[in-house]
Design brief:
Layout: H1 2-11, H2 20-30, H3 32-42, H4 50-73, H5 84-104
């Protein structure tokens, strides 16, 4: 939110102006809410365990933070922009693992047992 407010000021006529890369960085940081939903809700509905589960969770965390950071770092160190492919591939891998885990999960995966009413 703070990044967005700073951008609103910087884009306004009173602001100093922004480099184009910062707008892309803002868009990616805005998607971090999707990360919270996926790691907190969707992965729980799969039957992923062990390395697959860790790869899915940490792939989302690392990819979602470093992809926008790379876009912003490109302004300072252009050679780091190539690492965006690594973070993007990590996100694709995580999404594929979660999709596979969802497709192969049983219907009861991730559900808590419901209480039965007393007779």
């Amino acid at each position: 939110m703070a990044w967005g407010l700073i951008q609103v000021f910087a884009i306004s006529p009173a602001g100093p102006g922004l480099p184009a890369a910062s707008v892309g960085g803002h868009a990616h940081f805005g998607i971090l809410s999707i990360l919270a939903v996926v790691t907190g809700f969707a992965i729980e509905r799969t039957e992923l365990t062990g390395t697959l589960r860790s790869t899915a969770v940490w792939g989302f965390v690392i990819g979602q933070w470093l992809l926008p950071a790379t876009v912003l770092m490109e302004m300072v160190a252009p050679q780091l922009l190539i690492t965006a492919y690594i973070w993007g591939a990590l996100l694709v891998l995580s999404m594929a693992i979660v999709a596979w885990g969802t497709i192969t999960a049983s219907d009861a995966a991730g559900r808590t047992p419901s209480a039965a009413p007393a007779d």
